[in-house]
User: What shape does this take?
Amino acid sequence: QVQLVESGGDLVQPGGSLRLSCAASGISFRFYDMGWYRQAPGKQRELVAGITTRGGTNYADSVKGRFTISRDNAKNTVYLQMDSLKPEDTAVYYCNRDGPSAYRFGWGQGTQVIVSS
Assistant: This one.
């Protein structure tokens, strides 16, 4: 059974940084493109960063230059380094497979990020 466990969310001031982690189990992690998604109150979940099996990355325009996605296949973990955080980054952050929604795994509980002074 696939399990995705996100952690690292917190309350942080604008301009601050956080590092999110997502530990995956029940899958051959290294064979999957992975992504970080977020869902703000009243909004749809959106992909903010993706990383391929070979380490290629892509980012939403709203986070480009501020967020960095990485992965450690030995630890079955994907990370999201978030710098220069803005109030509009406030959301619940999730990891999952990057690709068509029909191929995604079940969602984890997510980790809450609040950017506020």
Observations:
- The first strand starts at residue 3 and ends at 7.
- The mean pLDDT is 96.
- Residues 66 and 83 are 5 Å apart (CA to CA).
- The chain has no helices and ten strands.
